[in-house]
Amino acid sequence: MLSTSLFAMLYITVCTVSLVTGILVLQNDRSSKTNHAYFALVVSLIIWTLGLTVSTVTSSITIAVWGQMVSSYGWANLYAILLVFVLRLTGRKERGNHYALFIPPILLMVVYGLPLNLYAYNLEFSPFGWLFTSTNTFWDYVFYVYFTGYTLLSLFLLIAWKTETEKHQKKQILLSLSVAFLVGSASDIYLPSFGVQLPQLAPIILVVPIVLIAQALRSRNPVVTGIDAAPRYTYIFVGVALYVLISVLQVRLTASSSILMALNLNESTFRGIITQLQMFISIYLVMRQKKTGVIAALLINGANLVSSVLYLIRTNSPDPIPGIISYIAVMLLIYLIRVFEQRSEWYISHIDSQRSELEKSQDRLYSLAFYDSLTKLPNRDYFINHVDQTITTLSDGSQKLAILFLDFDSFKSINDTAGHATGDLVLSKIAQVLVSVLDKEDVIARFGGDEFLVEVRRPKEEDLLLVTNTIMQALKNPIVLEQEEYFLPASIGVSIHPADGRDAHTLIMNADIAMYSAKAKGKNQVVYCDEEMKAQTTKRLRLTNGLYRALDRNELFVMYQPQMCTETRKVCGFEALVRWNNPEYGLVQPLSFIPLAEQTGLIRPIGMFVFEQACRQLIAFQQTCQERLTMSVNLSVVQLKDARIVENMKKILKKTGVDVHALQIEITESATFLDEPILLERIFELKQLGLSLAFDDFGTGHSSFSRLKTYPIDQLKIDIEFVQGITTGSDKDKALIKSIIQTAKNLGMEVLAEGVETEKQLQFLSQHGCDKVQGFYFSKPLKVEEIIANNQQIAF
């Protein structure tokens, strides 16, 4: 009968779809107890449905009863398993032993499922096959109470389930279970009691909540789910149903069938067509749903294969052999397709993974190339590119572009006292402060160390002043780390486009110039770049570059200023003074190029050049003079730090053969002497060579009487500042000069006064015991040729 075959087909479809969902959920997370309960729920539904399938298609009442008995093992357990599943799904702890929930199902299985004659099945044959009609016995009422109570309790637990992440799934499951409960109760219990003949529809109806629950469970683990994350079970259901329908037609087909006569086909041809359709449906399921379709296709083809093999064994007929070969071929084809798809998925996944890693690598490289790892701000390269791009948009002149160069004045002290780790934290915090006071359109970058760059665009130059004032005001507040306060005043240099540059590099350079000018003027202030700054910097740069080749080009030479004995008023020595004849700027004074030489380290070779020239010239002077002469040579602190200076000077002394005792080294005191004990050690090493030592410019700067006791000094040179006070009549200057001379005499040191320009100064110094003088009153620094030419005038 067609209706019987139809419902058998529906039952088999329910079995197949349920088994597919159960397998997929279990594969999704094999360790989940909730998934285990779901799979048990699916198995109970399949047992229920298979038993009904047997009762539907058989013509024997005995087999139908056995089918009903098998079915009872499914529906008796289903509602208890449903309750356990809901308990686990909603996250409720199962109080006591949950196996107690299965006491009613066990009783029902004993009564309905075992051939103990405890229950008499009342079966009637109908167009839908054998139908079970309840006689409302005691055990029927037990089932009604069990079924209703467990179902309502499950629904109540779902209603009370408080979840924020699965609200949509909760509504779907609750609604589908409620509808299935009502419709199933009506079709399987209430309507049959009124004489309406219907097959059991509850298993077919239950497939809807089964599928929705499967989707909810699989959505909990989307990474594992993969490509087949939300399968469209409608296609599976329809495909399986169509396959089962075709299989039913194949089983019921006979040579005298009206269908064959209507289509004018023989039986073998029609069976071949059906086999091809089955193959097409199987491949369609595999291609459409991948993992879900593969499981469904294997199940239905496997079932047909087993059925055909059993038929072959039972009848010993060759008729099912083509079908068997066809089913094996289809299953092999499904396997090959799946293997190909898995490889394709792996390649795609591998390519996607590589692309993702490449994108991450590109992002990391971009971050490393254009962002500072400590402050997370853009770095210098990013800033330069951005400024150049901004300049191209300023053609209309509607906005002024300024570059701010910030350098924190006391950051080094934080590193020295609190450590570099704390310094890094302070820099990160100060970067956040700067970002907070700037507009979103402004760009701030870390230039390096404690230096930052800011790109600011404003309609007027006056608005730029407001920006710098805001930054300076924000920096007045300390950075607080672990209850320690760190104040970071800053010097800021500002350059403005286009006056101070038409490209990023020039603007940054001129802002840097202005920043150093701010430091030179006292720090913690804002200075705007101007033409004078740029001119001085340009000159400084050219002089620095020229200084590197000055020795090679013989541009450096030594002049000598005579030193007079106050008692005889005769020349008793000279001070060697280096001069630079620059091709571009002419005669460059020492105050201009000596600091450059110290900064670049060129003072070392220049100093050795002057020392050697002075040694050779002293020998030449001694040959033309009967009096004993001395030669003074200046050494800077930078030269004294040179570990090889003593060795180099020793070589020069040996090479020239000069009288070591006639050489004097002049050293200017500075704050460096306080911090670097190695300088005192170096001075003693020079003294051991036989050289005499003098403190130059004594009485100014960092001069200390305590050092007169520590250092092996032979001579004190009174600074010109005190000597000039003699002429102006300053009693304080005169008193200081007397004190210096008296102190030196008491310590056994010689005294020389610098900058003597008048007879009055000379007389005062002579009266109070000054041993030697030098200055323009006697002679300015002279070249060797001038000294020889003026031999008589300077009493040589």
Characterization of this structure:
The protein has 796 residues and is an alpha/beta fold. Helices cover 61% and strands 13% of the residues. The strands form four sheets. An eight-stranded mixed β-barrel has the order 10-11-13-14-15-16-17-18, surrounded by five helices. Helix 3 packs parallel to helix 5 (138-160), helix 11 runs parallel beside helix 13 and helix 27 (720-728) crosses helix 28 (731-746).
Helix content: 55-70%
Describe the largest sheet: 8 strands, mixed, barrel
| Number of continuous helical runs | 30
The total of beta strands comes to 18
Strand content: 5-15%
What is the structural class?
alpha/beta
Global shape: rod-shaped
Offer a quick outline of the entry:
With 796 residues, this protein is α/β, with parallel strands linked by helices. Helix content is 61%, strand content 13%.
Keywords, separated by commas or semicolons:
796 residues; 5-stranded mixed sheet; 30 helices; disordered C terminus
Write the topology of this structure:
Elements: H1 2-28, H2 33-57, H3 61-89, H4 103-113, E1 123-126, E2 129-132, H5 138-160, H6 167-193, H7 202-219, H8 222-225, H9 233-252, H10 258-263, H11 267-289, H12 291-315, H13 321-370, H14 380-392, E3 400-408, H15 411-418, H16 420-437, E4 443-448, E5 451-458, H17 461-474, E6 479-481, E7 484-486, E8 490-497, H18 504-520, E9 526-528, H19 531-550, E10 556-565, E11 571-582, E12 586-588, H20 590-600, H21 603-624, E13 630-635, H22 637-640, H23 645-656, E14 663-668, H24 672-675, H25 678-688, E15 692-698, H26 705-710, E16 715-718, H27 720-728, H28 731-746, E17 750-753, H29 759-767, E18 772-773, H30 784-789
Parallel strand pairs: 8-9, 11-13, 13-14, 14-15, 15-16, 16-17, 17-18
Antiparallel strand pairs: 1-2, 3-5, 3-8, 4-5, 6-7, 10-11, 10-18, 11-12
Helix pairs in contact: 1-2, 1-7, 1-9, 1-12, 2-3, 2-7, 3-4, 3-5, 4-5, 5-6, 6-7, 9-11, 9-12, 11-12, 11-13, 12-13, 15-16, 19-20, 21-23, 27-28
